[in-house]
Design a protein that fits this description.
With about 160 residues, the protein is α+β, with helices and mostly antiparallel strands. The chain is built from four helices and seven strands. The radius of gyration is 15 Å and the shape is globular. The termini are far apart. The structure holds zinc ion. Zinc ion (ZN) binds near residues 16, 18, 19, 60 and 105. Zinc ion (ZN) binds near residues 16, 18 and 105.
């Protein structure tokens, strides 16, 4: 069992974070932004960047190669809609998408690119530094903005 503190300050424990989010054993901060029988979309529970979305599969799989053709198409459609919605609510103009097969449960990171990231190379090269900066500069006002963004995205998805 893994234990950590989420970005809302709650202690969370999980065996596989992806499976526990899929099974509603671990509710992501602010709740589910989008959910169907194949995937969920939610705020990353551990990284305090506003609008930092995780698209996770419900099935415990490792690779995009483990999906059917139809599932890949559906995931791409929802990924597209997520990025569209992030832009529609004025969150960002660009995103950085990351999928690591080294992770045990398939997920896609969708990171909004913000002006405060200008001092970094806004690519996978500097992602750990961007995350460290966000953790060091996390405060109540960022938390408020983060939760408001989740609500805006939920509303946009319902349209
Ligand atoms: Zn899993």
């Amino acid at each position: 069992m893994n234990k950590t503190i989420d970005i809302l300050g709650n202690e969370i424990s999980f065996d596989c974070m992806g499976c526990d989010i899929a099974d509603h054993k671990l509710i992501p901060p602010g709740g589910y932004i989008y959910e169907d029988d194949l995937i969920t979309i939610a705020q990353d529970p551990e990284i305090p960047i506003v609008g930092f979305m995780i698209l996770g599969t419900k099935k415990h799989i490792k690779s995009i190669n483990d999906l059917s053709n139809e599932e890949r198409h559906r995931i791409m459609d929802v990924l597209n809609l997520t990025i569209e919605n992030m832009k529609k609510i004025g969150l960002c103009k660009e995103v950085l998408i990351i999928q690591e097969e080294s992770s045990s449960h398939f997920h896609i990171w969708i990171l909004p690119v913000f002006p405060w990231m200008d001092k970094y190379d806004k690519s996978v090269r500097d992602i750990q530094e961007i995350i460290s900066y966000a953790k060091d500069n996390y405060n109540e006002s960022v938390k408020k903005e983060l939760l408001e963004t989740i609500d805006k995205l939920k509303t946009e998805f319902r349209k």
